[in-house]
Amino acid sequence: MSLRRPLWVTAVIGLLMTLLAAPAARAAEDPPFRDPALPLGQRIDDLLGRLTLDEKISWLHQYQPAIPRLGIGLFKTGTEALHGVAWSTDIDHGGAVVTADGTVFPQAVGLASTWDTDLIERVGAAVGDEARGFNSRNPRVWGLNLWAPVVNLLRDPRWGRNEEGYSEDPTLTGAISTAYGSGIQGGDPDHLRAAPTLKHYLANNNEVRRDSTSSGLPPRVEQEYDQAAFRPAVEAGAATGVMASYNLVNGRPATVNPDLDDVVRSWTEKDLLNVTDAGAPNNLVGSQSYYPNLAEADAAALKAGIDSFTTDDTNAAPTTTAIKAALERGLITESDVDTAVRHILSIRFRLGEFDPDGGPYGKIGADVVDSPEHRLLARKTAAEAMVLLKNSNKALPLSPAARKVAVIGPLSQTLYTDWYSGGLPYRVTPLDGIRERLGAGAVTGTEGADRIALKDVATGRYITAGAGEAGAVLRESATTAGDTEKFDVFDWGQGVLTLRSVANGKYAGYNWSNFVNDQAQPNGWFVQQQFKLEKQADGAYLLRYAGYETAESWFGPNTYIKAGDDGTLVLTTADQASRFAKETVASGVEAAAAAARGADVAVVVVGSMPFINGREAHDRTDLNLAEGQEALVKAVRKANPHTVVVLENSYPTTIGWEQDNVPAILWTTHAGAETGHALADVLFGDVNPAGRLTQTWPRSAGDLPDILDYDIIKSGATYQYSKDRPLYPFGHGLSYTTFAYQGLKLNANSARPDGTVVATVKVTNTGPAAGDEVVQLYTHQRSSRVEQPVKRLRAFERVHLERGQTRTVTLSFKAADLAIWDVTRNRWVVEASGHDVMVGGSSDGVRRRTTLNVTGETIPPRDLTRLTRAVDFDDYSGVEMVDETKERGDAVGASSGDWIVFRDADLRKPARVTAGVSSVSGGSFELRLGSPTGKVVATVPVPATGDVHAWGTATAPVGPVAGVRDLYLVFTGDLRIRDFVLGG
């Protein structure tokens, strides 16, 4: 017996069954790789198995094409996101260029100067959100694989890209990069908000000949310093890959450095997507001449651990052609391609690309870009990053009741972006911020720039610019000087200046055809808005075009300017150049002094122009403040003793006169749209400055070793090994309040190598205002087989304290962090030794100290009867680190008179020395005892092998010797040695 249903009930039930069955039906139709419930490895296997070989090869290029048959869209590796999403331009449907400016945070060196990992993680999260927002607009322009952060150590402040890095210290760099990367990725265990890629592996800290110089890294420097900066973020899962650098490391291009697989991937169990730097694959066959053709070069990069080739812009053909040729020649196999594609897919899956709903971050849209919350975060970060370098007689904070403040200087009324900066959606300049704080009537402003006109002595005509927004071609035309003939001159040091047209406020520059006043700021790869005015003996001036890369690379001697037959400015040689009278319409120094005299306080904002004073491809040759800017500061200080200098730049600057003569100095990096608000917050005490320097500021560039000397131990570089007295030490920064330290205690007075050291110290705010202190813990090992750092940062914490408040700050580190790389046995070793444990507010501001005894081991004498790598020496003179083979291994390259030493060697009465050697023409080396000129116990002839990578064997008897001695290898001729052994 059955009951009949009403028709409408049957219909409803049928509809419900259809709806419920639809997802199951769709799931059955969808391939497994689109099922987020499956394990990641299974999803990757499924998709990898569906790709043809050609499709897999196509994905090895930066622009991974869409595969419509699988419903897969284009994926782009590489969106710059150093301190916000960069290069924020797009092409609309009509083909016009449009901007999509986002939040620009302080430059990376400024982010690190906060010493606030929680804040930097929030910044990273904001950048990750905005990357999603931009990606939702145009995934071809803005991908979700982000090339940030830069974790190269700021070993030498002359590095042109100093603004991009965090610190000269690996502990601080590791902590900040981990925080930034964690924020970018988000907190989901299985998905990525965006995928951070660490730049640039390894030892990349010079721009001069950056693709042909080799960074020489003895094993201790490589392990304890350069790798130590990259390891923390990778180990913490806060990075999804590394970018190989342009330079060579120990003679081998970083693009084919086997570390990419052997070392970096050993730090994590997660897949990493490793990429080349832009154009680097082509360098292997070009400037580096390391391989004869691209097929061999790309094959070597792939086998070394590169997964994605960033080269030839959007044109993948050279890469895919080279990879196919490598496959045909047997240089690689399809499994090598599969390995790289598997790494790529791991990241793409984690980004939610193949999830039906895009994953947990898939719904983030363009509304997050430049959101009110991000603006507030940018303001907070810019304020936290500022470092109070000097503050005599409580010159700061300024009284909010100040009747009149003069804001002076070339950076007081502008904000500059840098090469890796996004565009600014709005601008709050220093003058704007201070005026907003005090009211327009209380603030006067002048840039302190000379206003000039240039009149051709021969023709009597002035250089004339255009008055409209787009400017006009510069030519000699007018016989009197109106606004179109006047230019404001800004001095950036070493004779380089920029000319801003009074007629339209735009900078004059070259456009490969003409000189035009049409740029909002100096910009571009060649920075063609640079000039020099060269005074001649008769008082006239030559106007020289000084754009980057132009004099030798493009125009030879034709870098001077003359008027053509129609008056248009053209390039010529110095002897053919027009001679100009420089008429100063208004003196910037005089205007600045007048403004300062009429004010209660003068705030002078000086510093750098990021596109001019060093940047990618251009190192600095000095660290000085521009001559004209220093003259401006001196004039203002003379006019008004109540002078505050705001130094806005991206690197240490040798401001010795200012430190001696100006009451207060505040440093900020270029900090984005909120710079003026943040500056006013700090100047008037709404924010108590607590930024700390992340680099040593030397007294002059002359205190630094050669920029190409990467051995910080031997050269005595950075705060770790330098014995010099700096202008400002690492970790330096003042406050509007004071702090006292009491009761430093350790959890134990001794520690085993596997233990954890926990230090507690009471910190009290003893001053008149609430503020933050950055509590820094350093250690120094008292005894060691090797030279130890003067001190080294182990832990830190930024803490907030109200007036009179005391907090117990806990800082900890692993005893294993005290390990050194033992070159005698090629492993990490914690030595038995006492350690000074020091806490304070900077590296030279130690306030409390105690002793920790570590029960480690004593490194025994060297056993040279075991095969010893030549690069594992203890000291050296003249030699260089070179590549053993093109694939892997390090060796020592030597010339006549060079030497290496192996200390404390247990010689055990050896009868013979046998060495692995190579030499084009042959040579020899001697074994000497005690010194490079000590007793000779062996002379080893080295045969010619014909090629530096063709290795042979050299051997010779060893004279009578016994005991533990220092053994020197002293070289004659040009040769290489990879290893040696002393035997019977």
Compact summary:
This protein is α+β, with helices and mostly antiparallel strands. Helices cover 22% and strands 27% of the residues.
Describe what this molecule looks like in 3D.
Keywords: Hydrolase, Signal. This is Exo-alpha-(1->6)-L-arabinopyranosidase. GO terms for molecular function: alpha-L-arabinofuranosidase activity; beta-glucosidase activity; carbohydrate binding; xylan 1,4-beta-xylosidase activity. The structure is a single chain. A six-stranded mixed beta sheet has the order 12-29-28-27-13-14, with helices on both faces. Strands 40, 42, 45, 47, 48 and 50 form a six-stranded mixed beta sheet that branches. Strands 41, 43, 44, 46, 49 and 51 form a six-stranded antiparallel beta sheet that branches. It has five domains: 23-359, Alpha-Beta Barrel (TIM Barrel), CATH 3.20.20.300; 372-447 and 587-715, 3-Layer(aba) Sandwich (Rossmann fold), CATH 3.40.50.1700; 458-578, Trefoil (Acidic Fibroblast Growth Factor, subunit A) (Trefoil); 737-854, Immunoglobulins (Immunoglobulin-like, Sandwich); 862-983, Galactose-binding domain-like (Jelly Rolls, Sandwich). It is globular, with a radius of gyration of 31 Å. The N and C termini lie far apart (104 Å). It has 984 residues and is α+β, with helices and mostly antiparallel strands.
